Amino acid sequence: MRDPLPETIIPRRAGQQALTVSGSLPEGATPRLTESFGVRAPVTVNLRFGAYGDDKVLVTGQLMTRVMGQCQRCLEPFEAGLETEVEVEFGLENSCSDRGREIIPGIDRELNLAEFVEDELLLGAPMVALHDEGTCVPPGEAPVQKAVVAGRRRPFGELGSLLGRKEPD
Ligand SMILES: [Zn+2]
Fold it and tell me: What pLDDT, on the 0 to 100 scale, is given for residue 49?
């Protein structure tokens, strides 16, 4: 069994330890995400912390869950995977990234892991949820009827012709 995820992390220490965090957040740990989308699966967390430079910690990894969204085209609810790649730096106040990454001040401040994960998932979530093209029907538009090919069934007709037998008149 995996160790439970830590509730809080000090980024500088995690970076020095080259900490890897992997596991699932407990249910109810991401209330804002649940409010915006119904969360349908535990949030899976895979993060790596690494110190670099003097006062920087780079965090990379992936966050995954399944959510319920409402399709903005047909207004039907649907379930979809939500996955976010994380690549952020923790640094000192007023520090700026030399690689153009998102930088979060507070390298020495206690980080609430669930809140951080929730922020990153909300940032990565699509603003407009839509079904894949062609899988939904906007209200007021008739669904495309699939042509039903009506035909008399002749269970062995084809087999008969394959065997070279003459069809009865
Ligand atoms: Zn739709």
Answer: 98
Give a yes or no: residue 56 inside a domain. Answer: yes
**CA distance to 66, 80, 154, per residue, from 148 (Å):** 36, 31, 17
pLDDT exceeds 90 at position 54: no
pLDDT digits (tens, 9 = 90+) for 77-119: 888 888 999 999 999 987 777 777 878 999 999 999 999 999 9
Domain count, the chain: 1
Residue 9 has a pLDDT of: 97
Domain assignment of residue 13, yes or no:
yes
- β-strand pairing of 8-9 with 111-112: antiparallel
Interatomic CA distance for residues 88 and 106, integer angstroms: 12
Ligand 1: centre distance to CA 10 (Å) = 42
Work out whether strand 8-9 and strand 20-24 pair parallel, antiparallel, or are unpaired: unpaired
User: Is 168 a domain residue?
Assistant: no
Distance from the alpha carbon of residue 126 to the mean position of ligand 1, in angstroms: 15
Query: How far away, in angstroms, is 8 Cα from ligand 1 center?
Result: 39
Whole-structure pTM value:
0.74
| Domain containing residue 64 | 8-124
Is there a domain that residue 162 lies in?
no
